[in-house]
Amino acid sequence: MSLALEDPVSALSGVGEKRQAALRDLGIFTIEDLLTYYPFRYEDLGARRPSETLDGEKVTFKGIVSTPAVVRRFGKRSQTVLGLLIDRENIRVTFFNQPWVAKNIEVGQEVAVYGTYNAAKAALSAIKLVPATTDALDPIYPASKGVKAKTIADLVEQAWGQLRGQMPNLVPQHLRDKYRLLDKNQQIEWAHFPKDSADAKAGRRSAAFEEFFIFQMRLQLIKQADQSFGGQPLNYDKEAVAKLINRLPYDLTAAQKRVVGEILADQHDARHMNRLLQGDVGSGKTVVAAIAMYATVTAGCQAALMAPTEILAQQHAKSLAKLFDQAGIDLRVELLTSGLKAAQRRQILTDLTNGEIDIVVGTHALVQDDVYFHHLGLAVIDEQHRFGVKQRSKLREGGMNPDILAMTATPIPRTLSITAYGEMEVSVIDELPAGRKQIITSQLSQRQFDQALALMKEELAKGAQAYVVTPLIEESETLDVRNVTEVYQTLQAALPDYTVGLLHGRLKKDDKDTLMQGFKDNQVQVLVATTVVEVGVDVPNASIMLILDADRFGLAQLHQLRGRVGRGDRQSYTVLVADPKTDYGKERLKALVDTTDGFELAQRDLELRGAGDILGTKQSGMPEFQVGDPVKDLTMLTIAQQEALSLVRESDWDNQVENQPLVTYLSKTMAQFRHFD
Fold first, then answer.
1. Count of CB atoms within 10 A of residue 505's CB?
2. CA atoms in the 13 A half-sphere facing the CB of 556
3. What is the DSSP-derived secondary structure letter of residue 5?
4. DSSP label at 190?
5. What is the 3-state secondary structure (H, E, C) of 421-488?
6. What's the CA gap between 116 and 125, in Å, rounded?
7. Conformation bin of residue 389: beta by default, left when phi > 0, alpha when psi is -120 to 50
8. For the CA atoms of 617, 620, 625, 628, what is the dihedral angle to 10 degrees?
């Protein structure tokens, strides 16, 4: 029976139910999946001389067996030792737990052995015998307990033996010519069966571009589908919006003006807006969102702002109401959270449905089944890494298709904005408001804690306030509380003239809110906390952030904590108290001391950590690429994005002959990626 690319891997000889399940766990379902499951490295089986080989290097030696193979047994373990003459150099070869080798070789026979070379002892720790005629690279595949790399290699060879030359070209011919990419069949051949390292490199280069290009094509098609629902062109009152901007108590920065222009243009356009607004802590994203929301209201629509926590939702509601009140603009801003009394909630839901509320602020509860808007024109999402296809579909089910403006204070390096946020337009506020002082950051060892305490006392004496943050100890909530309680007691004793507050996860919600309000009102001067989110409120009088065991935090998390100070006129300080044990820990803290630029830090974090685990937590929506590395191959990733965008902008791209294999492939695979977020 002939084999087809869409056949399940069980069509291959040697693949039963158990092996099929193991392959499925690796993402290999079909023959096509198998042939595009590429090696992650290669072992060089080309023979060399000992004099050409570095100590500890894996190498193939080809020579004449000079002494009989002797098997030495140690219980269940064994060593098979023989001599190998390579030209005039004699080395000792040892096979561990492979006693059968002795039966397969004899003195005077030419053999080739692959293993690890010990130059000092002129010895080879042998891994395997290889054909004496071999002079190629041995592909090594990502494997698992259920299926070995050698098994995958054998299956690839079996499948390719039947399908050689039958792979369709997914990357159009003009792009292969432009970027010197291999034909798909040559790509497969050279990636799996390279004659030398140049072949392997060329095969992987073409495979990486194809992987990036297909991913970007999917993102562009998702974006097109999103916009096909039709946006709401908002005919907002330009004079009213200009009046609000003129009445602000400060001038917008050039970056804020640019971003406001981008958002207003989107809102006025008939296409649906799906934009990410990113800017460092304190860059002024909220006022930009307020202008967009006001523009929405002047067009006769409602706006909603979703925050990740109730305390931040409360802060947003208060700051928005204050901003519009100071500008002399009469708007109704309401807060919708789970903390409302039933009667209050019912009234707000009724008024929201009737259109009597202009702007509603809340948590993700705003997209619950019992929430109905009169005419929602804009949904602003604060500090949510993703607001995906599913949530937008939820709003549409209610007859709405609002513009989406997502905001994040987590600076996103280029790699992530192209991948995790690739279907969104991106606006960046890359400038802090005028007069904002740089936060001075320093690192002290645990033994230098008294210096940090002295700086805190100086600031408190000037009337300022301070945060002291301790890390969570994940193994035990009891340890967390004990840890932070010890710090709290130490500071109470050291600072008898000031009120020290203690905030941790075991406090009741009302107690947390009361404590945070007391800190905002300067009734509490020093706040000791284990948690990060709860301290995300705006306290302009706080000028010092002391972070204990700072090496336990992620780089982005440390930068977010640092952003809690420096929000007022005072010179502010962040002190990192830590004794990092690893080079990675030292590099992370050094990066924070060296720069306050969040985008530079985000890129540094990406380089230090890699793309798999980023920004302190597993980045939701961050794709895993099998061949390409989105950090190291950023230029290739960027080009793939540009070419995908250029292609889908051609009105008849999906009817062109050279694109038909790509169109067929995308139509088959888009469904499983539709809800990748």
1. 14
2. 22
3. T
4. H
5. CCCCEEEEECCCCCCCCCCEEEEECHHHHHHHHHHHHHHHHCCCEEEEECCCCCCCHHHHHHHHHHHH
6. 5
7. alpha
8. -70
Q: Which residues pair with 676 in a beta bridge?
A: none
Q: Count Cα neighbours of 8 within 13 Å in the Cβ-side half-sphere.
A: 10
Q: Tokens 């305490």 correspond to what residue?
A: 453
593 has which bridge partners?
A: none
- Tens-digit pLDDT profile for residues 375-403: 999 989 887 544 455 555 565 555 567 88
What is the Cα–Cα distance from 373 to 353, expressed in whole angstroms? 5
* Separation between Cα atoms, residue 76 and residue 217, nearest integer Å: 55
Euclidean distance between CA atoms 614 and 612, whole angstroms: 6
pLDDT of residue 395: 58
* Amino acid (1-letter code) at residue 330: D
- φ, ψ for residue 74, nearest 5 deg: -130, 80
Q: How confident is the model at residue 618, as a pLDDT?
A: 38
Side-chain-side CA neighbours of 577 within 13 Å: the count stands at: 19
- Residue entry with tokens 């100890």: 473
The three-state secondary structure class of 573 is strand
Contact 115, 126 (CB under 8 A): yes
∠ Cα 440 442 444 (to 5°): 155
Which of the residues in the chain have pLDDT under 50? 385-387, 474-475, 479-480, 534-535, 612-622, 674-677
At residue 100, the 3 state secondary structure works out as coil
* 650, burial (CB in 10 Å: exposed 0-12, middle 13-18, buried 19+): exposed
- Residue 586, number of CB atoms within 10 A of its CB: 15
Q: Residue 507: what pLDDT?
A: 80
One-letter amino acid identity for 404? I
What is the rounded CA–CA span in Å between residue 512 and residue 505?
9
Percentages helix, strand, coil for the chain (3-state, rounded to 5) are 45, 20, 35
> Strand 333-336 to strand 403-408: parallel, antiparallel, or no bridges (unpaired)?
unpaired
| DSSP designation for 272 | P
Q: Residue 469 — φ and ψ, nearest 5°?
A: -115, 130
Side-chain half-sphere exposure of 566, counting CA atoms within 13 A: 25
CA proximity to 559, closest of 571, 547, 548 = 547
Q: Which amino acid is at 313?
A: A
